[in-house]
Amino acid sequence: MNIKVCGITEMKQLQQLDGLDIDFAGLIFYKDSPRYIGDKISKSELKKADFDLKKVGVFVNPEMIDVLDAIDDYGLEVVQLHGDESPEMCGDLSSEVEVIKAFRIGGDENIDELVAPYDAVCDYYLFDKATDYSIGGTGQQFDWNVLNKAKVEKPFFLSGGISVEDAARIKAFKHPDLFGVDINSRFESAPGIKDMSKVLQFKMAMK
After folding, report:
1. Which tens digits make up the pLDDT trace of 31-63?
2. How does 174-200 read in b/e, with b if 16+ C-beta sit within 10 Å?
3. Mean pLDDT of the chain
């Protein structure tokens, strides 16, 4: 099971996540998020860093040029689009990096219809609780069972309010396309500051 830790704001914590063999680390480029990367991490230092984990830039309804600049400035390998971005934008970006398209789930959506326009232009999906664009700040979960009714047919991440205590439930959740879990606010001592002991505890519990 792949683990993505989102909302990182310190270089030291990226290094710690890499040391824990975490698979993906999310850097939030949405200015209204309490985990906005801003100038908290040096662009040049991050770009030249030799990590095994994949650096994910998280955006909400961005301008294309801003995403391309961030890919170049920070050495991003993956882009996560968390707003209402078009399939065309995803397709254009997929020629540069891997693309995760996030969908906010309320519970009564037809998942397969929701994702169909993006099938050919994304590498992964991410399913989160239907809220505003706070990204990781709500700590709320949606009913994962809605995914059991869907084929999906693309690797996807579960997101939204996941904590250490959810490890057993995640392992019991069977879907052929479940690729990973996205963890954020339930693993923090403060917004953007992760409690690495909790991250390690979760990683061990997921084995």
Report:
1. 999 999 999 999 999 999 999 999 999 999 999
2. eeeebbbbbbbbbbbeeebebebebbe
3. 94
| Structural domain range at position 9 | 2-205
Q: How far apart are CA 25 and CA 183, in angstroms?
A: 10
Q: Looking at the 3D structure of the chain, how many domains does it have? A: 1
Q: What angle do CA 82, 163, 126 make, to 5 degrees?
A: 25
Q: Give the per-residue pLDDT at 139.
A: 63
Residue 176 sits in a domain whose CATH number is 3.20.20.70
pLDDT at 129: 86
Given a cut of 80, whether residue 111 has pLDDT beyond it is yes
Report the candidate in 20, 18, 13, 41 with the shortest Cα–Cα distance to residue 29.
41
Say if residues 30 and 135 touch (Cβ distance below 8 Å).
yes
- State how far the Cα of 116 lies from the Cα of 133, in Å rounded to an integer: 22
From residue 115, how far is each of 29, 39, 72, 156, 194 by CA, in Å? 23, 34, 28, 11, 31
To the question of pTM greater than 0.70 for the whole model, the response is: yes
What is the spatial distance between Cα 136 and Cα 50, in angstroms, rounded to a whole number? 26
3-state secondary structure of 188: strand
